[in-house]
Amino acid sequence: MKTTSVTPADLSASVLAVPPLARGADFLLNPEANRALIRHLEDGGVRTLMYGGNANFYHLPTSEYAATVDFLAEAAGAGTWVIPSAGADYGKLMDQAAILRNRAFPTVMALPFGNPSNDSGVATALRRFADRFGKPIIAYVKGLGYIEPATLGALARDGVICAIKYAIVRDDPRKDPYLDALLQHVDRDLVVSGIGERPAIVHLRDFGLKSFTSGSVCVGPRGSMKLLALLKAKRYDEAEKVRAAYIALEDQRDALGPIRVLHDALTLAGIAEMGPMLPMISSLSDKERDAVGGPAKALLAHDRDVAIERVAA
After folding, report:
1. Residues 142-162: tens digit of each pLDDT
2. Angle at 165 between CA 306 and CA 104, to 5 degrees
């Protein structure tokens, strides 16, 4: 597992995969299935694993937190970077920071909290969390009104944050006043597109971001890594063709819930037996699984035809 300090080069070296966590019928971690998913990602060239919303860290009991992050650190390959999440509420942030402080993770992502919170209160929480953790953290922005661009700029200048996962969904990602403002306050090399393949081309081409997070990369790692390489090479027409393979599964994620669909898609595609979801999220119904199975299998089949290659600029 990568343990050195976070740099912009680290953020752009790989698609940041956001995997689910496989569980058994007793809701405990399934080590074999989780290792199978990690190997699938690593075999496809992915070297950054971010465990957050898709892994349902929101509802992970603090009593299981240390064992979970220790397992992930052990299961990943020597060259793979594991980024756990913490929070989302202030109490869990501080309790989990104390657990993480004595471990080798170079950073951790603070899950975004809803109400009750405000801009200055969130900033204080992130500062105190990073201080207790002892290293810069990743902020996660997925909604308006959570934290302001200027506030994130101050946190970056003060060394509180080393990156921002930006995930505010727009009908037209080309029109994004918040992202425009954010890039006036924060170096764009620190901002990661956080909404998967759908807006990735716009975010990297038009806003100059350097990488993106993805859930569907867990099904199709080779294609997602090729998409990143093509975007870095500014070969946008080819990138559009690669991204097209992901849209059917992304449509199901948008329609039925991104976390639920990705979790069960991995089982339906035959990549790993993911088991039940940790409450308060439920697995797909039989009808929903029928709708998801086809796109999941099609993406995996497509991905097996994608050669891992170096894309020249």
Report:
1. 999 999 999 999 999 999 999
2. 90
Domains of the chain with bracketed CATH: 8-304 (3.20.20.70)
Prior bond to 61 cis, omega within 30?
no
Alpha-carbon distance of 306 to 291, in angstroms, equals 24
pTM: 0.96
Q: Which two tokens stand for residue 307?
A: 């050669």
Q: Which residues contact 183 (CB under 8 A, 6 or more apart)?
A: 191, 207, 208
Residue 103 is classified by DSSP as S
Q: For residues 67-94, b (16+ Cβ closer than 10 Å) or e, as one string?
A: ebbebbbebbeeebbbbbbbbbebebbb
Cis upstream peptide for 167 (omega within 30°): no
Q: Decide: 149 and 124 in contact? Cβ < 8 Å.
A: no
Nearest-5° angle of CA 88, CA 1, CA 158? 50
CA distances from 188 to 171, 228, 305, 311 (A): 22, 16, 33, 23
Residues 51, 53, 57, 58: what is their CA dihedral angle, to the nearest 10 degrees? 160
The β-bridge partners of 49 are: 17, 82
Is the per-residue pLDDT at 27 higher than 60? yes
**What is the crossing angle of helices 221-232 and 31-43, to 10°?**
40
